[in-house]
Design a protein that fits this description.
The protein has six helices and 15 strands. By secondary structure, it is of the alpha/beta class.
Length: 239
Amino acid sequence: MNIAICDDNPKMVGQIENLLLSFFENDPNQFNYEAFLSGESLVEHLTNSVSSFQIYLLDVEMKSLDGFDVARAIREKDQQAIIIFITSHVELMPEAFEVNAFHYLIKPVDEIKVKQVLTKALEQLTLRKMILQFTIQKKVHTVYLGEVEYFESMKRKMIIHLKSGEEYEYYGTMKEVIDKVSPQLFTQIHNSFVINMDYVQVKSGETIVMQSGREIAITKKFNQTFQRAYRNYVLMRTK
């Protein structure tokens, strides 16, 4: 696992490094980290490097390019990366929803809180690595559930819509899908649609807009189910 730390305060970077080393002390080979002392240096790395990070720890109040600007640059390249903001100003955090931030840490950073947030982040990454297997013309295909934006049912077939824009169509039922996916990530909003809540961009009235731009109507039958599932999804990340 690759983790990026971005803060223009070297002392804070050192503190976060020590907290990471403490968190992974039982398995230090589980992670690698790289520190950046400005938003510009991290964005430059993202632009010029093929490597990526699964978790970003971003200071919000940096000179020139702040944490939100950096997060927007990250989202242009990676919709799935976990972004955790570090800030002294909790009142700025509503803007974090615009870039689908996973969580935030308040300065001075508390070791217990850091461990709680990192534990939840690892749980989220584990959920995304779960797989789904299905058969098309006698050939078994495998996809990571974290790559699935939503499932669509059409007559006797299921269509898997991936975040990449790829689609897989196979014979199956919605019940089979619901039985296989995690309710922590997926919820049904229509007889024909199960969505990955990681990719919800906005709820507008009775419509869900996914990050791909696809608009999916929530039927009355599933409205309360969605509200409850999405509330639990958010709470799981912010407790």
